[in-house]
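Lecture notes, part 5. Sequence design as translation. It can be helpful to think of inverse folding as translation between two languages: the language of shapes and the language of residues. The source text, in structure tokens, appears below.
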């Protein structure tokens, strides 16, 4: 008789779990990415023995802070059903412009806002092409990518070294409780703050709810009287601002700016966002998932570095994971459509 209550309890727990996943299907890819991250941590620690150390784990955020900021902005755009291929080039252009202005003696209090405004302007230009001229997001952002890369070369054909102490302080300062313990840099704090602000905007504001509505069904969002045009423009502006801020962070990270910085970064950003569970068709995804996707990406790079293998394996692994998550997303969308 004692086995009956246990069986009923297990059945009840199993039913509750199925109900949760049926109602929160959008969380399945996020939880899958989290599971992959945990398995990678456990496997790497078992193989190397010194992977889960404060230095290595802290460096994950330090080395990928700029990518995390870009991923937050990209999440907003992809949630609307769009794409932004210009973020890597905008990051390079704003970095080059900022380094040039700092070299000419302008204070950092002027240079950083200028970099953010330039990023916002580039994002707005892409949004205007998409919304008012009916240009496909892929083509509009591709044009912006070429324009931003060309502008970066117009600033200088060679690398510009950054010597401003305020910019270098962002990366060189390590905040830690004790020597040898976990640490974080101001660039890492900036990245985490961007994640928090992005998550709050999507979850608790009308702007965020409208973004999800547009991605789910833009025509329905228009019929409901939602500000579709303004929201889509703002989504691209958010992506542009994040690209400008990433320019600041990446400049601090490298201590210099170069016109070819950020080549391929837009693809890394899209891959991280998709691995984090955001649907490429829009309407489903979370900033937290994008953060997990960036950590998965960074962990793969670190593991391959530990192995001493060529970094080409990073691309191969990311490509395989991306394909896996796209398939998972298609299955979830198909099941949701049937329901």
């Amino acid at each position: 008789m004692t086995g009956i209550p246990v069986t009923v309890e297990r059945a009840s727990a199993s039913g509750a779990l199925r109900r949760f996943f049926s109602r929160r299907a959008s969380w399945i890819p996020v939880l899958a990415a989290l599971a992959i991250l945990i398995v990678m941590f456990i496997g790497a620690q078992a193989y190397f023995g010194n992977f889960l150390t404060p230095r290595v784990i802290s460096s994950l955020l330090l080395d990928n802070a700029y990518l995390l900021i870009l991923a937050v902005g990209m999440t907003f755009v992809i949630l609307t059903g769009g794409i932004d291929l210009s973020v890597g080039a905008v990051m390079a252009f704003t970095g080059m412009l900022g380094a040039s202005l700092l070299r000419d003696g302008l204070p950092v209090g002027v240079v950083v806002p200028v970099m953010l405004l330039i990023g916002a302007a580039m994002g707005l230009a892409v949004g205007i092409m998409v919304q008012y001229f009916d240009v496909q997001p892929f083509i509009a952002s591709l044009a912006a990518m070429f324009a931003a890369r060309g502008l970066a070369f117009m600033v200088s054909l060679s690398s510009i070294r950054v010597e401003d102490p305020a910019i270098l302080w962002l990366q060189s300062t390590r905040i830690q409780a004790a020597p040898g313990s976990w640490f974080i840099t101001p660039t890492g704090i900036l990245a985490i703050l961007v994640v928090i602000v992005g998550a709050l905007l999507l979850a608790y504001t009308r702007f965020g709810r409208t973004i999800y509505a547009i991605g789910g069904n833009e025509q329905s969002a228009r019929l409901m009287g939602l500000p579709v045009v303004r929201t889509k423009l703002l989504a691209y502006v958010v992506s542009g601002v994040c690209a400008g801020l990433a320019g600041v962070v990446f400049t601090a990270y490298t201590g210099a700016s170069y016109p070819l910085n950020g080549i391929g970064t837009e693809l890394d950003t899209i891959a991280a966002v998709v691995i984090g569970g955001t649907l490429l068709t829009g309407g489903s995804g979370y900033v937290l998932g994008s953060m997990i996707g960036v950590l998965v990406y960074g962990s793969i790079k670190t593991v391959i570095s530990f192995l001493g293998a060529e970094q080409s394996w990073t691309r191969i692994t990311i490509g395989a994971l991306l394909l896996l998550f796209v398939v998972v997303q298609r299955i979830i969308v198909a099941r949701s459509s049937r329901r």
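The translated text above is only one of many valid answers, since several sequences can fold into similar shapes. Strands lie at 160-161, 175-176, 183-184, 256-257.
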